[in-house]
Structures are given as structure tokens and as C-alpha cells.
UniProtKB/TrEMBL annotation:
Protein name: Cyclin-dependent kinase 2 homolog
Single GO molecular function: protein serine/threonine kinase activity
Keywords carried by this UniProt record: ATP-binding, Nucleotide-binding
One Pfam family this sequence matches: Pkinase
A single GO cellular-component term on record: nucleus
InterPro entries: CDK (IPR050108), Kinase-like_dom_sf (IPR011009), Prot_kinase_dom (IPR000719)
Assembly mode: May form a complex composed of at least the catalytic subunit CRK2 and a cyclin.
Length: 125
């Protein structure tokens, strides 16, 4: 797969490994941090010029920040870093990147595989 701009801002620090999905305001890729070798999911979010979308993005970031600060919580995806490109050209789309834990399976895959065993209460919560 080929990543287009504005992904150029993460290519120095991260090596794109796999396209994971696309949403209404961005994409998600699996990427390897070049220095540490750690694997992350990186979500791009296009910044929109409407107040509702901005409020929604701020709520998502606040929630991720709060959940990332909860110690010993293995049931949430942690936000490791927010990358805000500073040297965008005037005609480039405004975007930010969220560097998060990479989870190898989707919820559907987990549920399909879980038919072989009984889910315990902590897995259901």
C-alpha cells in the first residue's frame, strides 16, 4: 500500500506496515517505531472547520488521555503520542496523528474465536 501526504510527517520516525482501516475523518495504519522497534496503530484525523467536529475530536482526545493515565488497565487502548505537523503547506489538509497501542484482532475476530471458550466476567466488561 502507498501512503499519501500528509503521512510524510510520520515517515521519519515510523515505518508503515499495514493499512488497517478508514473512517469518516481519517485512516488507521499499523506502524513500527524505527528507533525502538515497537509496533503501534497510528490514526490520522483530518481537522475540520466546524465546531461540532472539533468538539468531538477534543472529547475523544480527552477520553484517550484519561484512559491512558489509568495504571494497570489492560482493557483499554493507550494513547502514546499526538503528532501535530507544524510545517503544513497552505494547500495541504490539516491533520493530526494519534499514536496508540496496536491491537492485532478486531472485535468481530475476537468474538468469533471466543465461541471455543467461555468468556469470563472481566472479558465481558
Amino acid at each position: 500500500f502507498k501512503l499519501e501526504a500528509p503521512w510524510k510527517f510520520i515517515k521519519q520516525q515510523y515505518q508503515a506496515k499495514k493499512f488497517l482501516g478508514m473512517g469518516a475523518v481519517g485512516q488507521v495504519i499499523k506502524a513500527k517505531h524505527r528507533a525502538s522497534g515497537e509496533v503501534f496503530a497510528i490514526k490520522s484525523l483530518l481537522l475540520q472547520d466546524n465546531e461540532s467536529a472539533t468538539k468531538s475530536l477534543i472529547r475523544e482526545l480527552q477520553t484517550l488521555k484519561h484512559l491512558s493515565g489509568v495504571k494497570n488497565n489492560v482493557h483499554t487502548i493507550r494513547l502514546h503520542r499526538v503528532i501535530v505537523p507544524e510545517d503544513l503547506l497552505p494547500d495541504e489538509e490539516k491533520v493530526i496523528f494519534l499514536v496508540m497501542d496496536y491491537v492485532p484482532n478486531t472485535l468481530i475476530e475476537f468474538l468469533d474465536n471466543s465461541q471455543q471458550f467461555e468468556l469470563k466476567e472481566p472479558q465481558v466488561k
